[in-house]
Design a protein that fits this description.
By secondary structure, this protein is of the alpha/beta class. It folds into 3 domains: 5-264, Aconitase, domain 3 (2-Layer Sandwich); 272-413, Aconitase, domain 3, CATH 3.30.499; 467-640, Alpha-Beta Barrel (Aconitase, domain 4), CATH 3.20.19. Helix content is 29%, strand content 18%. It has a 7-stranded mixed barrel. Strand 4 (58-62), helix 3 and strand 5 (91-93) form a beta-alpha-beta unit. Helix 2 (36-49) packs across helix 5 (137-144) and helix 21 crosses helix 22 (636-644). It is globular, with a radius of gyration of 24 Å. Bound molecules: alpha-methylisocitric acid and iron/sulfur cluster (SF4). Alpha-methylisocitric acid is lined by residues 37-38, 65, 119-121, 134, 361, 487, 534-537.
C-alpha cells in the first residue's frame, strides 16, 4: 500500500506509537520556531526544564508580533528572548527581519523535515514540503530540549488540484474555496495534502498562502509536494543544497478527496466574522470600504508585493481609503526598494509599515468605528482588529489593491489586464539581522536579561481527588482564543505576565469574568463546538489556570487549545450527548466525584452531577497514557520535571 506525503514524513520521524489514524504518536522534531508573543513563556518553560542547549537541528527565535513599543515591556521581552537564544543555541531573528513564517520559509525551511512552532500558522512551511505544525509554547520548549512531540495520528485529506488559475485569481482564492467547503471545523484531526497537475502551476509562496490558512480549517497541517517549483524557490534563496523531492505514492490511501479545478475559481472574500464565511464578489454586492491592509504571514511574499505594486503603479489610493502595506520580511522589503516597487507603492499613497505582524494582531491600524476593512490576512474574528465593531473581509492581494483604488470591494477582473512582471531568479540574501548563538565554550558567559514585567509560570497543583466547583462562564460555539485571551496593542505587552494578562481573560464575552473566577477560587467553564479555535497562544490556558479554572466541558475542542489545556493541567471534557449542554447554566455547581481515581484507572466515560438541578450528565475524558500522567501531575511542566529527575 502506498504512502501519503504525511505518512512518509511521519514514519521517518516516528519515536512512539504506530501510524494508526486516531491514535497518539510521538515524533522527532527537526526544527522549531517561536515568536515573541508566545516566546517569553516558551523560554521561561525551557529554562525551567534545565536543558542547557537546544537539541534540534535548527531552532529559531523570531521577533515579529510585539513590535509596537509604547512602553518598556515589549523591548524587555525582545532582549530576554535574544539573550536566551544566544545562551541556549538558537538563531535569533531580530525585530525588523520579518514575520516568522515568511522568514522561515525563505531562510530555514527544508523539505521533508518536521517543524513545530509556537504559532498556529507554522504550517506555512508545508508550502516547502515540510510537515510543519503549530503548537503551544510548552510543547515547543520540550521539543527544543530533544523531547518528542505528540499528536493524534492524523487523517489525510487529498485536495486534487487540476487546471490553472485565471488572471486575477490567486492562491488566496484557492484556500478561501477550501474553507468555504470544509468550514473552520472541517480540518480538525487532519492533514490536508495538495496533489494533482494543478500543483505544478503554483510557486512556493502561493503554496505557502494555502498551507498557512489551513490553520483556519483547524487542520493539524497542510502540505505540498517538494518538486521543481520547490527547487526553483530554494535556488533563488541560494539554498538548493537542502532540496529533496517529496510526493505521495500513486496508490496512497486518503480519508477524503476534494477536487478543485483551479481554472473555475473566481475572486472570493471571507466576510465578517469568520474565515469560512466565504462569498463571491457578486454575492456580496456593492460594498464601500474604509481601509485596506496588505501583508501578514498569509500574503506578504515578494510575489504578492510586486503584484500589488504593479496594480498601484501610477495611480492614487481612493480618498476615502487608508491603505497600509507591510512586506513580510526584510528580504522582501529590501528587494522592493531595489527594484522600484516600493517607490510605486509610496507614490500611490500607501502607508508602509515595518516587516512584522502589525495590524493582523491589532498592533496598530485598527479601523474606524464600524469601519469596513479589506485585509489579505487569515483571521477576521470579531474585535481582533482592535475595533469592536470593525467589519473585516479577507481577500487576495489582487482584490485588496484593486479595491484600494476604487474605494469599493472590487472584483479585480473588472479593472483591465493583470500587469505583467517577472520575479527575479535570484533573491537578495543578507542574513545580517539573524544573530548566531554563542558557541558551547562561550554560552555559560551569556547573561539572561530579564525585565520587571517578566513573571514566572503560574502555580499548578496535581489533579484533585474530586472537582466540586461552580460554572464561572458558559459560552457558545466557535469560541476563538481571541475571545479567551484577546491580543492587540494594549494586552499583548502582558504576555510575559500571567497575573496581569489574566485580568483580560474572556472580557470580550464577559467583562466580569476575571474578577468572578478569581473570587470563586475554583471553577469550570462550559462551551460549545470547536472551542478554542484559532491561535496557539497557551495564554488562553494559562490565564484560566491562574484564575482557578479546573476543567473545561464543551461539545468539541480545537486541537492546539485542547493540548494547551492539558499542558496547563486543566481537565478537558466533552459532552457525550451535545444536547446536555442545555442542562447546565452559568452559576450551577458541577461535581466530578473521584475524578483523580477515574483518570488514574484510565476511565474515559464519567458522569458530571449538576448539583443545582440534579441532572446527571455523561461526559468523555479522553486521555491516553501520557496525557493522563500530565493531567495527574498538574501539567506538562511538572510532568517533564518529574521525568527528568
Ligand atoms: C495569531 O495570529 O493569532 C497569533 C498572534 O499569531 C497567534 C499566536 C499568539 O497568540 O501569540 C497564533 O496564531 O498562534
Ligand atoms: Fe502574525 Fe498575523 Fe501571521 Fe499571526 S496570523 S503570525 S499575527 S501575521
Amino acid at each position: 500500500m502506498g504512502l501519503t506525503m504525511t505518512e512518509k514524513i511521519l514514519s521517518a520521524h516516528l519515536l512512539e506509537g504506530e501510524l494508526i489514524r486516531g491514535t497518539e504518536i510521538g515524533i522527532r522534531i527537526d526544527q522549531t520556531l517561536t515568536q515573541d508573543a508566545t516566546g517569553t513563556m516558551a523560554y521561561l518553560e525551557f529554562e525551567a526544564m534545565g536543558v542547557p542547549r537546544v537539541r534540534t537541528e535548527r531552532s529559531v527565535a523570531y521577533i515579529d508580533h510585539n513590535t509596537l513599543q509604547n512602553g518598556f515591556e515589549n523591548a524587555d521581552d525582545h532582549r530576554f528572548i535574544g539573550s536566551c537564544a544566544k545562551k541556549h543555541g538558537l538563531f535569533f531573528s531580530r525585530p525588523g527581519n520579518g514575520i516568522c513564517h515568511q522568514v522561515h520559509l525563505e531562510r530555514f525551511g527544508i523539505p521533508g523535515k518536521t517543524l513545530i512552532g509556537s504559532d498556529s500558522h507554522t504550517p506555512t512551511g508545508g508550502g516547502l514540503g515540510m510537515l510543519a505544525i503549530g503548537a503551544g509554547g510548552l510543547d515547543v520548549a520540550v521539543a527544543m530540549g530533544g523531547g518528542a512531540y505528540y499528536i493524534t495520528c492524523p487523517k489525510v485529506v487529498k485536495v486534487n488540484l487540476t487546471g490553472k488559475l485565471s488572471p486575477w485569481v490567486a492562491a488566496k482564492d484557492v484556500i478561501l474555496e477550501v474553507l468555504r467547503r470544509m468550514t473552520v471545523k472541517g480540518g480538525v484531526g487532519k492533514v490536508i495534502e495538495y496533489t494533482g497537475e494543478g500543483v505544478k502551476t503554483l510557486s512556493v509562496p502561493e503554496r505557502a498562502t494555502i498551507t498557512n490558512m489551513g490553520a483556519e480549517l483547524g487542520a493539524t497541517s497542510s502540505i505540498f509536494p517538494s518538486d521543481e517549483q520547490t527547487l526553483a524557490f530554494l535556488k533563488a534563496q541560494k539554498r538548493e543544497d537542502v532540496w529533496t523531492p517529496l510526493c505521495a505514492d500513486a496508490d496512497a490511501v486518503y480519508d477524503e478527496v476534494i477536487e478543485i479545478d483551479l481554472s473555475k475559481l473566481e475572486p472570493l472574500a471571507a466576510c465578517p466574522h469568520s474565515p469560512d464565511n466565504v462569498k463571491s464578489m457578486s454575492e456580496i454586492g456593492t460594498l464601500k470600504i474604509d481601509q485596506v491592509c496588505i501583508g501578514s504571514c498569509t500574503n506578504s511574499s515578494l510575489l504578492d508585493m510586486m503584484k500589488v505594486a504593479h496594480i498601484l503603479k501610477g495611480k492614487t489610493v481612493h480618498p476615502d481609503v487608508s491603505l497600509s502595506i507591510a512586506p513580510g520580511s526584510k528580504q522582501v522589503l529590501n528587494m522592493l526598494a531595489e527594484n522600484g516597487c516600493l517607490s510605486d507603492m509610496i507614490d500611490a499613497g500607501a502607508r508602509i509599515l515595518e516587516s512584522a505582524c502589525g495590524p493582523c494582531i491589532g498592533m496598530g491600524q485598527s479601523p474606524n468605528s464600524a469601519g469596513i476593512s479589506l485585509r489579505t490576512f487569515n483571521r477576521n474574528f470579531e474585535g481582533r482588529s482592535g475595533t469592536k465593531d470593525g467589519q473585516i473581509y479577507l481577500v487576495s492581494p489582487e482584490t485588496a489593491a484593486a479595491s484600494a483604488l476604487t474605494g469599493y470591494l472590487t472584483d479585480p477582473r473588472t479593472v483591465g489586464d493583470m500587469p505583467e512582471f517577472k520575479l527575479p531568479e535570484v533573491f537578495t540574501i543578507n542574513d545580517n539581522m539573524v544573530t548566531l548563538p554563542a558557541s558551547e565554550a562561550e554560552m555559560d558567559e551569556v547573561e539572561i536579561l530579564r525585565g520587571p514585567n517578566i513573571k514566572p509560570y503560574p502555580d499548578t497543583t496535581p489533579l484533585l481527588e474530586t472537582i466540586d466547583a461552580p460554572v464561572s462562564l458558559k459560552v457558545g460555539d466557535n469560541i476563538t482564543t481571541d475571545h479567551i485571551m484577546p491580543a492587540g496593542a494594549k494586552i499583548l505587552p502582558l504576555r510575559s505576565n500571567i497575573p496581569a494578562i489574566s485580568q483580560h481573560c474572556f472580557t470580550v464575552c464577559d467583562e466580569e469574568f476575571p474578577a468572578r473566577a478569581k473570587a470563586l477560587g475554583q471553577s469550570i467553564i462550559v462551551g460549545g463546538a470547536n472551542y478554542g479555535q484559532g491561535s496557539s497562544r497557551e495564554h488562553a490556558a494559562l490565564a484560566p489556570l491562574y484564575l482557578g479554572v479546573k476543567a473545561v466541558l464543551v461539545k468539541s475542542f480545537a486541537r492546539i487549545h485542547r493540548a494547551n489545556l492539558i499542558n496547563a493541567g486543566i481537565l478537558p471534557l466533552t459532552f457525550v450527548n451535545e444536547g446536555d449542554y442545555d442542562k447546565i447554566a452559568q452559576g450551577d455547581t458541577l461535581v466530578l466525584e473521584g475524578i483523580r481515581k477515574a483518570v488514574e484507572n484510565g476511565t474515559s466515560e464519567l458522569t458530571v452531577l449538576n448539583k443545582t438541578n440534579g441532572a446527571e450528565i455523561p461526559v468523555l475524558c479522553e486521555l491516553t497514557g501520557r496525557t493522563k500522567d500530565i493531567i495527574l501531575a498538574g501539567g506538562l511542566l511538572d510532568y517533564t520535571r518529574e521525568n527528568l529527575k
